[in-house]
């Protein structure tokens, strides 16, 4: 296929994922929420008409939420987040894909239509972003490598997308609908209407 979706995901290990959320609800409950996020992301990406790859933060796992028959499995490269993403995009283009989107695994709002829309936009734009309401982005797509997208910056801050746009001056950029990553307990409460994806007991304790 010409299209590839890359998912960046942390290995779901106690105390190593959703650390900001864990400060409010504890490591165990934060891990439960992250597993729900992974499950939702894997299910959503699994229905996209494209090839799929998951890049683990630590090590490849089998027989997990990322179906071995649907997802190519890799480990993220070294360096800051931008360098890790650049390595992933370079790998994808080396495999012969002509359109690549990368997404995170922190979004209960992610829908198959978001990914499909991003690929459609790449027919007429240089890059496409899915803005996150915290100032970052939940999706980035391109049809050729634009290295300035990966320059070092203050990752995981409210200026990430703004700085990235500044680094990409001269390119034609398109933006999808803004959505909210699940990083804090406030995010969980705001999006409690997505209770089908959040462990019921945790939701009851938060609302």
Automatic annotation (TrEMBL):
InterPro entries xrefs: Nucleotide-diphossugar_trans, Trfase_1_rSAM/seldom-assoc
Origin superkingdom: Bacteria
Pfam families recorded: DUF2064
Protein name per its UniProtKB record: TIGR04282 family arsenosugar biosynthesis glycosyltransferase
